[in-house]
Specification:
Elements (H helix, E strand, L loop, with lengths): L4 H12 L9 E5 H5 L8 E7 L10 E5 L2 E9 H14 L8 H11 L2 E4 L1 H8 L4 H28 L3 H22 L10 H8 L2 H12 L7 H17 L12 E4 L4 E6 L2 E6 L3 E5 L1 H9 L6 H9 L6 H10 L4 E4 L3 E2 L24 E2 L2 E2 L7 E3 L4 H30 L3 H22 L20 H15 L6 H22 L11 H20 L9 H6 L12
Parallel strand pairs: 2-4
Antiparallel strand pairs: 1-2, 1-5, 3-4, 6-10, 7-8, 8-9, 9-14, 10-11, 12-13
Length: 553
C-alpha cells in the first residue's frame, strides 16, 4: 500500500471532522490503494458503514485533505447485504449482472478496515471471497465470449478494423476472467498489468502482452484473420469455452419491433415503432435479400448475389442500428459490451439532413447506400406522408372541379376552387418537409418562412398571386387554369411528386392513386398515426381496393 496505516488514520480523522457528527461508523478503505495499486494521484476512498436498516446516499462527498482528494461514501449493513444478495441472484445470468453492482461488492470485499473491524468483517462474511471470484470470472468470461463472437462476425462481414478492436477487447476480458479465478477480481482494466504481475504466471502475462503488441495495422485483412485465430487459441488455453472459429454458427435474426414498409422503390424500416430509417437503393436491395434465420455467411452470399458492392458493410450498418441482430446457435443473441463504457445497444445516428424529407414515392435519402434516420418520430413521419398523398389527391380533384366550373362559366366557383387547390398544394409542400400537424389553410402562405428560402419564396409568391385572382371571362379562366397548373408543377417538382397520378382521369389513374395511398396508409395504421380522412379506413379494410367492385365475370 502506498500510504502507511498512520497516514490513512490521519486522513480519516481530518475527513470525519468535516462531516456531521452523531453516527457511529465502521470505516474501511476501498479502491486502488486498498488493492495495493494506486499512485500519488489516486483518490482516497473511504466507505462508512452504519449498523442500520437505513437507505444512505449513493452519491459520495468529495473532500480535499492535505492535498489529496478524498471520497466519502456511506452504506448501511442492510444495503450491503442487499448488494451481495443481488450479485448472488444475478450470477445465474451473468449477461444481466450489473457492472456497477459487481464493482461495489468487489471494492468492499477487498477493502482495508480502519475502524470497526469486527463489523466490516461480519458483513464481508455474507459473501465468501471464493464465491465472489467465481461470479466475477463468469461475468468476464461471458463478456469475452460475446466480444470474440462479435469480432468473428465483423471479420466475416469485411469490417476488419472493427473486428481487430473487438478481438483486443475480448482478449482483455478473457485475461480478466482468468485473473479473477486466481484472486485478482478488481474490475478496472487499467491496472491489468499489475494484476498480471501479481498473479505470478509469466507465461500468461507474456503471451497476452505479445498479442496486444502485435495487433494488425488498419486494413490488413489477412493479418486480422491470423490475429483472431491466435486470440481464440489463447482464450481456449485460459479456459474460455464457446467460441470456436466457426462463423456458420452465427445467424441473422429478426429484432422485435422492427418492421419493413415499402412505397414505390423506397424501403423504410421502422425501429421500435418510434424511428424510421429510409434506405437508399443499394441498402434497400441488400435489406430485401435478407432471409432471417440463415447463417451469416449464407446471408452475406445472398446479398453479394444482388450485385451490390461490399454488402457486408451494409449488413454491419443494419446490425449497429439495431435493425437486425446476430445470434450464436445455442448461445442466444450476441451482445458485446465493454467495461466502464457506454452500455451496449443499437446506435442512433444523427438525423438525415435531406430536404424535403418526403416524396409520394418514399422518404428522401442521401445516396444509394444510405440508411438515414428520419428527423421526426415515426407516427409524425407516417402522418406527414399520408398528408402529402392526400393533399395531392385534393389538388387533382380541385383541378377537375375548376375545369368544369370554367366550362360552365361559374366564375365564383372557379375562384374558390382555385384557392382550394392552392391550399391543398401547400399542405402537400409542408407535409413533404415533415410539418405535422399542419398550419391552418388561412395561415399556410405566412408560414412558408418555416421552409428553406429558396423553396418557400417563389412558391409563396405564386400562391399569393393565385389566392387573389379573380375571373369573369373565358380568356381569364384559361389563363387562371394554366397558371394554376404551372404552380402545381412548381410545388410538385419541389417535393418529388411530379409523377403523381392524374387521379380522376381514368380508372387506371384512380387505381394507381389508391395503390400509392394504400402503401402509406398501412404504415400509418401500424403506427396509430392520425389518418387524413375517415374513408381511409375503408381503403385499409379492402387491402387497397375500392370497397364496391363489380365481380369479375
Amino acid at each position: 500500500m502506498i500510504l502507511t496505516e498512520d497516514q490513512l488514520q490521519n486522513l480519516l480523522d481530518k475527513s470525519l471532522a468535516e462531516l456531521p457528527r452523531g453516527t457511529e461508523w465502521a470505516v474501511t478503505l476501498e479502491g486502488s490503494i486498498a488493492e495495493g495499486f494506486g499512485n500519488p494521484s489516486s483518490d482516497i476512498d473511504f466507505l462508512l458503514v452504519a449498523r442500520s436498516e437505513d437507505d444512505l446516499p449513493t452519491m459520495p462527498s468529495l473532500l480535499f485533505v492535505d492535498g489529496r482528494r478524498v471520497e466519502i461514501r456511506t452504506r448501511s449493513v442492510r444495503q450491503l447485504a442487499d448488494q451481495f444478495r443481488a450479485v448472488e441472484d444475478g450470477a445465474k445470468r451473468p449477461g444481466r449482472l450489473s457492472e456497477d453492482l459487481l464493482n461495489r461488492c468487489q471494492r468492499f470485499l477487498h477493502s482495508h478496515p480502519l475502524r470497526g473491524h469486527a463489523l466490516v468483517e461480519e458483513v464481508k462474511a455474507l459473501l465468501p471471497v471464493e464465491r465472489f471470484r467465481e461470479i466475477t470470472a463468469d461475468w468476464w468470461a461471458h463478456r469475452a465470449r460475446q466480444s470474440l463472437r462479435h469480432a468473428l462476425a465483423l471479420l466475416c462481414l469485411g469490417e476488419t478494423d472493427e473486428a481487430v478492436d473487438w478481438t483486443r477487447s475480448g482478449l482483455v476480458q478473457t485475461v480478466k476472467s482468468w485473473a479473477a479465478r486466481v484472486g485478482e477480481t478488481y474490475l478496472e482494466p487499467k491496472w491489468l498489468s499489475l494484476q498480471l504481475d501479481r498473479a505470478a504466471r509469466a507465461d500468461v502475462r507474456d503471451r497476452y502482452w505479445l498479442l496486444e503488441a502485435t495487433a494488425p495495422a488498419p486494413g490488413d485483412t489477412g493479418a486480422a484473420h491470423e490475429y483472431l485465430t491466435a486470440a481464440l487459441a489463447f482464450a481456449a488455453q485460459l479456459g474460455l469455452t464457446g467460441v470456436p472459429q466457426q462463423p456458420e454458427r452465427i445467424t441473422v435474426e429478426r429484432v422485435n419491433g422492427v418492421t419493413t414498409w415499402q412505397t414505390g422503390d423506397r424501403v423504410h424500416v421502422v425501429r421500435a415503432r418510434r424511428e424510421v430509417f429510409a434506405l437508399g437503393d443499394d441498402a434497400g436491395t441488400v435489406w430485401r435479400s435478407l432471409v432471417l434465420g440463415r447463417p451469416l455467411p449464407q446471408a452475406l452470399a445472398a446479398s453479394a448475389a444482388t450485385g451490390v458492392t461490399e454488402p457486408g458493410a451494409l449488413l454491419a450498418t443494419f446490425l449497429r442500428y439495431g435493425l437486425i441482430r446476430l445470434a450464436w446457435k445455442g448461445g442466444g443473441t450476441i451482445t458485446p459490451s465493454l467495461p466502464l463504457a457506454a452500455p451496449p445497444g443499437p446506435v442512433t445516428p444523427p438525423p438525415s439532413t435531406a430536404r424535403p424529407l418526403l416524396s409520394v414515392r418514399g422518404a428522401a435519402v442521401g445516396g444509394p447506400r444510405a440508411v438515414d434516420l428520419m428527423p421526426l418520430p415515426a407516427d409524425r413521419f407516417a402522418a406527414a406522408a399520408m398528408g402529402l398523398v392526400w393533399a395531392n389527391v385534393v389538388v387533382e380533384n380541385a383541378v377537375e372541379d375548376l375545369t368544369g366550373a370554367l366550362q360552365r362559366g361559374q366564375w365564383r366557383v372557379a375562384e374558390l376552387t382555385t384557392r382550394r387547390a392552392v391550399h391543398a398544394a401547400l399542405r402537400g409542400l409542408f407535409s413533404a418537409y415533415g410539418v405535422n400537424p399542419l398550419p391552418a389553410d388561412s395561415d399556410l402562405v405566412r408560414r412558408l418562412d418555416l421552409l428553406p428560402a429558396a423553396t418557400g419564396r417563389p412558391i409563396g409568391e405564386g400562391a399569393g398571386t393565385l389566392l387573389r385572382r379573380t375571373v369573369d371571362a373565358p380568356e381569364r379562366g384559361d389563363a387562371l387554369l394554366a397558371d394554376l397548373r404551372s404552380f402545381i408543377g412548381l410545388v410538385r417538382g419541389a417535393v418529388g411528386a411530379d409523377s403523381f397520378p392524374l387521379s380522376f382521369e381514368s380508372a387506371d389513374t384512380w387505381r394507381a392513386t389508391l395503390e400509392l395511398g394504400y402503401d402509406w396508409l398501412r404504415i400509418g395504421a401500424h403506427l396509430d398515426a392520425e389518418l387524413p380522412i375517415e374513408e381511409a379506413r375503408d381503403l385499409l379494410a379492402s387491402n387497397g381496393a375500392q370497397p364496391h367492385r363489380t365481380p369479375a365475370p
